[in-house]
Structures are given as structure tokens and as C-alpha cells.
Amino acid sequence: MKCTSQPEMGCEQVRQRLFDLFDVVNVMAAHERPGENVYSIKVFKSAVEQLRVARMNTMTRWQTCFTAMVMLVSGSVVVAQQTPTMASAGELFNQSKWTKAAAAYTAITAKEPKNGAAWQNLGECLLQVHKHEEAVAAFEHAITVGFRPVLNQVNVARVYGDAKDCAKAMVELQKMIDSGRGGRMRPMVLSSIEFAQWKDDAEFQTLVEKMAPCRSPEYRQFDFWVGDWDVHAPNGPSVGRNVVTMEQDGCVLVEHWTALNGGQTGTSFNYYDVRDKK
């Protein structure tokens, strides 16, 4: 039978009502006798009432089942919402509860695979408990999602340092230097306890020197200005003294001007701007 339903009534509902009507007709046919129309009507009413009660019982069971399903789904949602937050994981991290913090960040990264901060902190937790392979994987995940790639390159090298793998640590540091961003990470490399074991190693010292900022030629264009200068006016007489020093790892030239009579002083800061290229 093909069913075309009303807009407000589903196809299955129409079909079920037809089946109900057939049931009623069958009941009437089974009890119908000539000249007993009153009895037939009574039977009809009784059959309808029975069907109504049966339908109500069926709906009650369905509603109970539906309610149970809703409760089950709602419970699942609550469980999902109870996964650790960055704040609660951060509290564990700040308290150096590395194992618990690692578990919290693992749950977060499973739910938020692009959460770079969670990957980085997970790597740090794993590093602190000396789970080297897992720590490297976590830091590399942070790099993959674009979260502080230079810093996490150093973190990978720190893991190899903790594992006493000098060769791999040097490779990672060299990658950072080759990227041209080693200068920013030099203070971190020098202060990391994982690299302290190699402070007298020639190869390590060479890499650290390469990380020194402002070493390329464009930064050195004004080096001739460094010194203690006796400043003269164009017509010859001395007008003051200018002391120019190189500071901040050679990235800044600081000018200290003092007029001859001491009535005027001045200071200027001069550096190469990578944005303006001058």
C-alpha cells in the first residue's frame, strides 16, 4: 500500500491508524448478527476503547524508553564536559604535579588536537618525568600546529639533552640557527639545565656563538662609530665629547653626548631595523 500523508501527520501514523480501523472492523464482523445493531455499536465502542488503552500503554512504554535514552545521552554529554580544562591542567602544571598534569593535557589534546599550548605543556610534563620519546612527539605536535615553533624547537633539543644524546641535540639547535631565529633563543639555551653538561664542549660553544644576535653584516654598518670622540665645530674649536658604546650583544649603539661647558647632555639609541632594512 502506498501511503500519502497529510502534512501534519507522518506516513507511519496514517498506516497505523488504518491498521487500527481494520482491527475494529474485524471485531465488529466477528460479533455482528442480523438485527443486533445495538450490540454491534457496543462492541465497536468497546473495541475502540481497548485500542485506545493499548495505544496509550504503547506510548507510555515508548516515552519511558525515550526518556531513558535522553538520560543516557545527557549523561554522556556531562562526562564529555568534565574533561580537564586548561585552567585545571595549568594548576597541576604550576604545582609541578607532572604525571597528573600530563594526564590532563593528554585528555585535552585528544579533544582539541590543534591546541598548541596544551601540546607544549604536555611535552614539558613528559620531559620532567623523563619520557623522552613522548615528549619529543608532543613538542613536535606543537610545532606542527604552528604554536611557538622556535621555542619548541629548543624544547625538542632539551629533551635530547636530558636523554644525554648530544648528537641529536646539536642537530636540533643547528636547525634553529639555520632558520635565522636562533638569536631570540640564545638566553634560553644558555639557561637550560639540560645543556649545562656541554657548557665546555667546543661544538656546543660554537653553536651558542652562532646564536648570538646581530652578527650579520647589516647590523655592523655603524661599528666605525664606536669609541670616545672629541667633537669639533666645522671651524675648528672643540664643542664637546661623544662616547659611543656597543650594547645588548652588539645590537644597539648608545651615544652619550656631553657639551664642552657641561650645560648640555644627550643620549641616543641606534639599531638596525629589520622591517625598514636600515
Task: Characterize the structure shown.
The chain has 278 residues and is an alpha+beta fold. It folds into 3 domains: 70 residues; 128 residues, Alpha Horseshoe (Serine Threonine Protein Phosphatase 5, Tetratricopeptide repeat), CATH 1.25.40.10; 53 residues. 58% of the residues lie in helices and 11% in strands. The protein is built from 10 helices and 4 strands; from the N terminus they run ααααααααααββββ. It has a 4-stranded antiparallel sheet, with no helix packed on it. Helix 4 runs antiparallel to helix 5 and helix 5 packs parallel to helix 7. The longest helix has 45 residues. It starts with 10 loop residues before the first helix and ends in an 8-residue tail after the last strand. The N terminus is likely disordered.
Brief descriptors of the model:
3 domains, single chain, four-stranded antiparallel beta sheet, Serine Threonine Protein Phosphatase 5, Tetratricopeptide repeat, alpha+beta, 278 residues
Number of helices in the DSSP assignment: 10
How much strand content do the residues show? 5-15%
* Distance linking N and C termini: 85 Å
Query: What's the overall average pLDDT, rounded?
Result: 78
Q: Order of strands side by side in the largest beta sheet? A: 1-2-3-4
How many β strands by DSSP? 4
- Name of the CATH class of the largest domain: Mainly Alpha
- What structural class should be given to the helix and strand makeup? alpha+beta
**What is the CATH-assigned architecture of the largest domain?**
Alpha Horseshoe
- The name of the CATH superfamily of the largest domain reads Tetratricopeptide repeat domain
Write the element-wise H/E pattern from the N-terminal end onward.
HHHHHHHHHHEEEE
Q: How many domains comprise the coordinates?
A: 3
Unreliable runs: 1-9, 21-45, 64-82
